[in-house]
Automatic annotation (TrEMBL):
Protein name: Carbohydrate ABC transporter permease
Membership in a protein family: Belongs to the binding-protein-dependent transport system permease family.
Keywords, alphabetical: Cell membrane, Membrane, Transmembrane, Transmembrane helix, Transport
Coiled-coil residues: none
Membrane topology: Multi-pass membrane protein
Domain ABC transmembrane type-1 span(s) in chain numbering: 59-252
InterPro entries: MetI-like, MetI-like_sf
Localization of this protein: Cell membrane
PROSITE patterns, sorted: ABC_TM1
Record carries keyword Transport: yes
Organism of provenance: Streptomyces crystallinus
Chain ranges passing through the membrane: 63-84, 96-118, 130-150, 171-195, 230-252
A Pfam family of this chain: BPD_transp_1
Amino acid sequence: MLLLSALYTLFPLLWLVTAATKDTGGLLTGDALSFKGFDLGHNLSELASYNDGVYLRWYLNSLLYAGGGALVCALISVAAGYAFDKYDFRGKEKLFAVVLLGVLVPSTALALPMYLLASRAGLVNTYWSVLLPVLVNPFGVYLSRVFSAAHIPDEALEAARIDGASELRAFWSIGLRMVMPGFVTVFLFQFTAIWNNFFLPLVMLSDQKLFPLSLGLYAWNSNTHAEPSFYPLVVTGSLLAVLPLVVAFVALQRHWKAGLAAGSVK
Protein backbone atom coordinates (compact mmCIF):
# COMPACT_ATOMS: atom_id res chain seq x y z
CA MET A 1 0.00 0.00 0.00
CA LEU A 2 2.86 2.38 0.78
CA LEU A 3 4.50 1.57 -2.55
CA LEU A 4 1.26 2.18 -4.43
CA SER A 5 0.74 5.44 -2.56
CA ALA A 6 4.28 6.57 -3.43
CA LEU A 7 3.77 5.73 -7.11
CA TYR A 8 0.44 7.56 -7.12
CA THR A 9 2.11 10.61 -5.58
CA LEU A 10 5.14 10.59 -7.90
CA PHE A 11 3.26 9.86 -11.13
CA PRO A 12 2.29 13.51 -11.84
CA LEU A 13 5.92 14.55 -11.32
CA LEU A 14 7.10 11.80 -13.68
CA TRP A 15 4.59 12.96 -16.28
CA LEU A 16 5.78 16.54 -15.84
CA VAL A 17 9.43 15.55 -16.38
CA THR A 18 8.72 13.62 -19.57
CA ALA A 19 6.13 16.06 -20.91
CA ALA A 20 8.56 18.96 -20.57
CA THR A 21 10.74 17.32 -23.25
CA LYS A 22 7.93 17.36 -25.85
CA ASP A 23 6.99 19.91 -28.45
CA THR A 24 3.37 20.90 -29.07
CA GLY A 25 2.73 17.97 -31.40
CA GLY A 26 4.18 15.45 -28.96
CA LEU A 27 1.97 16.73 -26.15
CA LEU A 28 -1.21 16.77 -28.21
CA THR A 29 -0.69 13.22 -29.51
CA GLY A 30 -0.87 11.91 -25.95
CA ASP A 31 2.60 10.28 -25.94
CA ALA A 32 3.89 12.34 -23.03
CA LEU A 33 5.26 9.49 -20.88
CA SER A 34 8.28 8.79 -23.08
CA PHE A 35 11.39 10.73 -24.00
CA LYS A 36 10.81 10.23 -27.72
CA GLY A 37 11.37 13.46 -29.63
CA PHE A 38 13.43 15.00 -26.82
CA ASP A 39 13.09 18.79 -27.17
CA LEU A 40 13.80 20.11 -23.66
CA GLY A 41 16.54 22.50 -24.73
CA HIS A 42 14.27 24.24 -27.26
CA ASN A 43 11.46 24.46 -24.71
CA LEU A 44 13.77 26.08 -22.16
CA SER A 45 15.02 28.54 -24.75
CA GLU A 46 11.48 29.49 -25.75
CA LEU A 47 10.49 29.80 -22.12
CA ALA A 48 13.36 32.18 -21.33
CA SER A 49 12.88 34.36 -24.42
CA TYR A 50 9.08 34.55 -24.72
CA ASN A 51 7.73 38.08 -24.22
CA ASP A 52 11.16 39.46 -23.28
CA GLY A 53 11.73 36.83 -20.61
CA VAL A 54 8.61 37.52 -18.59
CA TYR A 55 8.79 33.99 -17.11
CA LEU A 56 12.11 34.82 -15.44
CA ARG A 57 10.49 37.94 -14.01
CA TRP A 58 7.67 35.80 -12.59
CA TYR A 59 10.24 33.43 -11.14
CA LEU A 60 12.05 36.23 -9.33
CA ASN A 61 8.73 37.59 -8.09
CA SER A 62 7.82 34.20 -6.62
CA LEU A 63 11.21 33.93 -4.94
CA LEU A 64 10.66 37.37 -3.44
CA TYR A 65 7.11 36.65 -2.28
CA ALA A 66 7.83 33.16 -0.96
CA GLY A 67 11.41 33.55 0.25
CA GLY A 68 11.17 37.00 1.80
CA GLY A 69 7.62 36.53 3.03
CA ALA A 70 8.27 33.13 4.62
CA LEU A 71 11.49 34.33 6.29
CA VAL A 72 9.87 37.37 7.91
CA CYS A 73 6.71 35.40 8.74
CA ALA A 74 8.73 32.67 10.47
CA LEU A 75 10.60 35.26 12.53
CA ILE A 76 7.38 37.03 13.55
CA SER A 77 5.68 33.72 14.38
CA VAL A 78 8.58 32.47 16.51
CA ALA A 79 8.82 35.79 18.34
CA ALA A 80 5.07 35.80 19.02
CA GLY A 81 5.05 32.16 20.12
CA TYR A 82 8.02 32.84 22.40
CA ALA A 83 6.21 35.80 23.96
CA PHE A 84 3.01 33.80 24.52
CA ASP A 85 5.00 31.03 26.18
CA LYS A 86 7.53 32.91 28.31
CA TYR A 87 5.72 36.07 29.40
CA ASP A 88 2.64 36.69 31.52
CA PHE A 89 0.51 39.68 30.60
CA ARG A 90 -3.13 40.70 30.89
CA GLY A 91 -5.43 38.95 28.44
CA LYS A 92 -2.75 36.55 27.22
CA GLU A 93 -4.94 33.51 26.87
CA LYS A 94 -7.81 35.50 25.37
CA LEU A 95 -5.46 36.99 22.80
CA PHE A 96 -4.08 33.55 22.04
CA ALA A 97 -7.64 32.30 21.57
CA VAL A 98 -8.07 35.01 18.92
CA VAL A 99 -4.92 33.69 17.23
CA LEU A 100 -6.37 30.18 17.25
CA LEU A 101 -9.60 31.56 15.82
CA GLY A 102 -7.53 32.94 12.94
CA VAL A 103 -6.40 29.40 12.15
CA LEU A 104 -10.02 28.43 11.47
CA VAL A 105 -10.67 31.26 9.00
CA PRO A 106 -9.87 30.23 5.38
CA SER A 107 -7.53 32.59 3.57
CA THR A 108 -9.94 32.93 0.64
CA ALA A 109 -12.54 34.47 2.96
CA LEU A 110 -10.06 37.22 3.84
CA ALA A 111 -9.09 38.07 0.26
CA LEU A 112 -11.85 40.63 -0.32
CA PRO A 113 -11.37 42.48 3.02
CA MET A 114 -7.61 42.56 2.42
CA TYR A 115 -8.22 43.95 -1.07
CA LEU A 116 -10.40 46.73 0.33
CA LEU A 117 -7.76 47.57 2.93
CA ALA A 118 -5.00 47.54 0.31
CA SER A 119 -7.11 49.72 -1.96
CA ARG A 120 -7.68 52.25 0.82
CA ALA A 121 -3.92 52.29 1.52
CA GLY A 122 -3.02 52.60 -2.17
CA LEU A 123 -1.15 49.29 -2.24
CA VAL A 124 -3.20 47.43 -4.87
CA ASN A 125 -1.12 46.24 -7.82
CA THR A 126 2.17 46.56 -5.92
CA TYR A 127 4.55 44.03 -4.39
CA TRP A 128 3.35 45.04 -0.91
CA SER A 129 -0.22 43.96 -1.64
CA VAL A 130 0.98 40.34 -1.82
CA LEU A 131 3.84 40.51 0.68
CA LEU A 132 2.14 42.15 3.66
CA PRO A 133 -0.78 39.67 4.08
CA VAL A 134 1.56 36.65 4.11
CA LEU A 135 3.73 38.01 6.93
CA VAL A 136 1.19 36.82 9.52
CA ASN A 137 0.43 33.14 10.05
CA PRO A 138 -1.77 32.24 13.05
CA PHE A 139 -0.90 28.54 12.78
CA GLY A 140 2.79 29.48 12.80
CA VAL A 141 2.28 31.38 16.06
CA TYR A 142 0.52 28.39 17.63
CA LEU A 143 3.22 25.99 16.44
CA SER A 144 5.97 28.31 17.66
CA ARG A 145 4.45 28.44 21.14
CA VAL A 146 4.51 24.65 21.24
CA PHE A 147 8.15 24.60 20.14
CA SER A 148 9.09 27.28 22.65
CA ALA A 149 7.55 25.32 25.53
CA ALA A 150 9.33 22.14 24.42
CA HIS A 151 12.78 23.51 23.55
CA ILE A 152 13.50 26.61 25.66
CA PRO A 153 13.96 25.94 29.39
CA ASP A 154 13.15 28.85 31.67
CA GLU A 155 16.43 28.27 33.51
CA ALA A 156 18.45 29.21 30.41
CA LEU A 157 16.62 32.53 30.10
CA GLU A 158 17.01 33.24 33.81
CA ALA A 159 20.76 32.62 33.52
CA ALA A 160 20.95 35.03 30.59
CA ARG A 161 19.10 37.72 32.54
CA ILE A 162 21.42 37.26 35.54
CA ASP A 163 24.37 37.75 33.19
CA GLY A 164 22.89 41.09 32.15
CA ALA A 165 21.29 40.15 28.81
CA SER A 166 18.28 42.19 27.74
CA GLU A 167 15.02 40.49 26.82
CA LEU A 168 15.71 41.03 23.13
CA ARG A 169 19.24 39.66 23.48
CA ALA A 170 17.95 36.61 25.39
CA PHE A 171 15.47 35.87 22.63
CA TRP A 172 17.87 36.47 19.75
CA SER A 173 20.93 34.69 21.16
CA ILE A 174 19.30 31.90 23.16
CA GLY A 175 15.61 31.45 22.47
CA LEU A 176 15.75 31.69 18.68
CA ARG A 177 18.71 29.31 18.44
CA MET A 178 17.06 26.72 20.67
CA VAL A 179 13.82 26.83 18.70
CA MET A 180 15.51 26.77 15.28
CA PRO A 181 13.77 23.49 14.25
CA GLY A 182 10.45 25.23 14.80
CA PHE A 183 11.65 28.27 12.84
CA VAL A 184 12.57 26.06 9.88
CA THR A 185 9.28 24.17 10.09
CA VAL A 186 7.23 27.36 10.02
CA PHE A 187 9.42 28.71 7.22
CA LEU A 188 8.87 25.62 5.05
CA PHE A 189 5.12 25.56 5.63
CA GLN A 190 4.80 29.24 4.79
CA PHE A 191 7.22 29.05 1.85
CA THR A 192 5.13 26.27 0.30
CA ALA A 193 1.86 28.10 0.96
CA ILE A 194 3.09 31.37 -0.57
CA TRP A 195 4.77 29.66 -3.53
CA ASN A 196 1.52 27.90 -4.41
CA ASN A 197 -0.64 30.92 -3.55
CA PHE A 198 -2.96 31.83 -6.39
CA PHE A 199 -6.10 33.57 -5.20
CA LEU A 200 -4.48 36.47 -3.36
CA PRO A 201 -2.28 37.56 -6.32
CA LEU A 202 -5.28 37.09 -8.61
CA VAL A 203 -7.26 39.57 -6.51
CA MET A 204 -4.45 42.05 -5.87
CA LEU A 205 -2.48 42.19 -9.13
CA SER A 206 -3.25 43.24 -12.68
CA ASP A 207 0.25 44.11 -13.92
CA GLN A 208 1.82 41.01 -15.48
CA LYS A 209 5.29 42.14 -14.39
CA LEU A 210 4.23 41.64 -10.76
CA PHE A 211 2.71 38.17 -11.26
CA PRO A 212 4.07 35.15 -9.38
CA LEU A 213 4.57 31.89 -11.25
CA SER A 214 1.19 30.48 -10.25
CA LEU A 215 -0.73 33.38 -11.75
CA GLY A 216 1.53 33.73 -14.78
CA LEU A 217 1.27 30.07 -15.73
CA TYR A 218 -2.50 30.26 -15.26
CA ALA A 219 -2.62 33.17 -17.71
CA TRP A 220 -0.64 31.17 -20.26
CA ASN A 221 -2.76 28.08 -19.72
CA SER A 222 -5.88 30.13 -20.42
CA ASN A 223 -4.52 30.79 -23.91
CA THR A 224 -3.74 27.18 -24.80
CA HIS A 225 -7.12 26.52 -26.45
CA ALA A 226 -6.69 29.40 -28.87
CA GLU A 227 -2.91 29.04 -29.22
CA PRO A 228 -1.65 25.42 -28.68
CA SER A 229 1.98 26.61 -28.81
CA PHE A 230 1.53 27.67 -25.17
CA TYR A 231 1.36 24.01 -24.04
CA PRO A 232 5.15 23.42 -23.97
CA LEU A 233 5.66 26.74 -22.20
CA VAL A 234 3.13 25.87 -19.50
CA VAL A 235 4.46 22.36 -18.94
CA THR A 236 8.14 23.32 -18.94
CA GLY A 237 7.41 26.33 -16.74
CA SER A 238 5.52 24.10 -14.30
CA LEU A 239 8.49 21.73 -14.08
CA LEU A 240 10.87 24.56 -13.22
CA ALA A 241 8.36 25.92 -10.71
CA VAL A 242 8.62 22.70 -8.67
CA LEU A 243 12.40 22.92 -8.25
CA PRO A 244 12.57 25.54 -5.43
CA LEU A 245 10.19 23.49 -3.29
CA VAL A 246 12.28 20.35 -3.79
CA VAL A 247 15.51 22.21 -3.04
CA ALA A 248 14.06 23.82 0.09
CA PHE A 249 12.79 20.56 1.54
CA VAL A 250 15.97 18.62 0.72
CA ALA A 251 18.27 21.33 2.08
CA LEU A 252 16.30 21.84 5.30
CA GLN A 253 14.94 18.35 5.88
CA ARG A 254 17.17 17.68 8.89
CA HIS A 255 15.76 20.66 10.81
CA TRP A 256 12.26 20.04 9.46
CA LYS A 257 12.16 16.40 10.59
CA ALA A 258 13.46 17.34 14.01
CA GLY A 259 10.81 20.03 14.28
CA LEU A 260 7.96 17.72 13.28
CA ALA A 261 9.09 15.05 15.74
CA ALA A 262 9.33 17.56 18.60
CA GLY A 263 5.94 19.03 17.78
CA SER A 264 4.30 15.61 17.63
CA VAL A 265 5.74 14.58 20.99
CA LYS A 266 4.59 17.80 22.58
